[in-house]
Records
---
Amino acid sequence: MTLLIAVFAALITTIIWYMSERMRSLKIGTLALAYWGASLMWLCDAIFEYAELRADYFTPAAEDMINDAFLGFAVVAFGMILWIGAILIKDPDHVVRKALFKKG
Amino acid sequence: MACFLVPTTEAIVTTAVGKIAKKQEQSNTADQAVKETEGTEHITFSTKLGWLSKMLWGGSALLAFEHVWHGEVAPYFPFLTAAETAEGARTMLHEMSTTGVSMAVVVTLAWGVMVLVSNALEKSADREKELQK
């Protein structure tokens, strides 16, 4: 479930990167690459787990699935927090600087 | 357990190599991320290596978060709960050498495909430019 949520996050951010010039200037490509990296890593993890559990891998307990889904959404949120943090620090449109040094 | 440490190590190496490559590119050409070659735009090697670094750093950070979630990373020495016992350490090293290494290899292979596609697109753009002349 975590892998599936990460793959969807990677797909959505890639589509946004492709379609929106504005989002490209906000470095959404970096977030997309991070999600793709995580998805590939979890894919490897899933292959090793499948080699161990075989068919049982596809029939997880409901409680495990809910926990994995919860983790997946938390991971997506964590990735977005890192990305927003990086935007606020780099401040490409000088929005933060303008807000901080605005003359009263 | 600690499989994310292998791609993290690769990320450190690629970031260092990327910085060295960028310095060399800057000394060879003008201070540009994209250099002009006979009218077509070519992406520099350091920029391409940056894609790999971003995938490795991003993936490792998100996997590290997952390990914290599962209680496998602790804020005290030795920081990895599996490293507290000899048996746990052995299992952890085995996982790093199998899952961790394959994670790093798969991400690097995916990046290799991205670079091949990008090189092919650059070559076809060059050919189109030459045909137009």
---
Amino acid sequence: MLDLWLDYKDLWLSGLKVTASLTLLAILLGFVLALPIGVARARNRGLSGVLAYGYVNFFRGMPLLVLLFLVYYGAGEFSRDLRSLGLWWFFRDAYYCGLLALVLNTAAYQAEIIRGSLNGIPSSIREANAALNLTRWTAFRRVLFPIAIARALPGLGNEFILLLKATSLLAIITIFDLMGQARFIFSETFDLRAYYVAALHYLVLVLVLEWFLRRIESRNAWAA
Amino acid sequence: MELLSLLTPGPTGWGDELLIGLGMTLGLALATFPVSIMLSFLIHRARNSRRRPVRYLAQMHVSVFKSLPEILTLLIIYYQSQVVISWVAEYAGFDSTLSISPFLAGLIALSLVISAYGSEVVRGALQAIGKGQVEAAQALGLSGFHCFWKVILPQFWRHALPGLGNLWVILLKDTSLVSVIALSDLTHVAALAINTTREPFFFYLVIAAIYISLVILSSWIQKRLERRATRGVVAGGRAHA
């Protein structure tokens, strides 16, 4: 199996890079998108609450594969409109389409995690904020947000791992991540071991990630 | 309106094809779920086995199938079992044109993945029931089978339903992956429809809506089952009567 890796070393390494960049970008952008949605879900009032509820259930309800096709193939149908809007460069590229689908998907899951940790904050902390005369914004920024994030870490870490695995779906829309390279090498050599090599990559990535996340979590033990 | 006419059954519409695809999706999910629950129990047993190698194997199963992307598992199972079947066929002197159906490959791959998560659900639920129930059953002289069937299992559902409901939804969505190995499930039928109609956005939106309604329906059923499973349970955990 090592020979198969060495023969296609450059491909595997570039696949690894694409998988890593997609995962990191998607988790970060997803978090930025998830934060307001999660807060709106936790407040659960007014129009923002309804919209956040709709968003979460829409994107969690469909398989990522379908969302991926919807963005990638669906956008092609509106190519003329997208061109006139100056957005075509984005939707023409499988990488950006895949990234967009991943971000939309993970934001829905992360929003639910953030909602859970915000709702889990004991009311005594909110009372303390009120007693200290903190404004709502200060209370959120300096007290509730740090606590919520620390409590959300295990969930977000889990989502990180699920997202890493989910990036492999992008191989279907011609992205050459680890999975894409494995498919390419398999089509060249008809050697099934290509998939096993890819599997080993994912196994190591997930194990390293798990170890890393456990270290971060142990630093935030105070939040538990 | 023009688009909606694509959904009518008959030679011009895709309504009947989509319905068959939906049947395939549901069929695969319904066939896989019981298999993966049984497998989850087995893996849970193996993880608590007295024999060390068995314990290690079960632990490895869980780590491996929780780490691998589902699609990779599916492709490996699909291609590898083709190879294995043709080896066996050659060795036994059969016709070597035998091949594994995408449905079976999907069933095996998905139950391996779901059971890795399922064994954790089983562990959590059995822990919630507690050892005392098993000890009480033994004290009453119930056999191992009777203890499991009459004492543990009826209480098991109450604690396992939220976790199992989650797994069911994950499974339902993961069945879309088998479209990659050309099983004509909902996603695959949509791709076929798009090949002729050139309406990708519309068809993917339609099947997205179907998946979303299936998920909503599932969570409604789950809530009803949970209410049934917790009937007679007073908040605080102790059952009366």
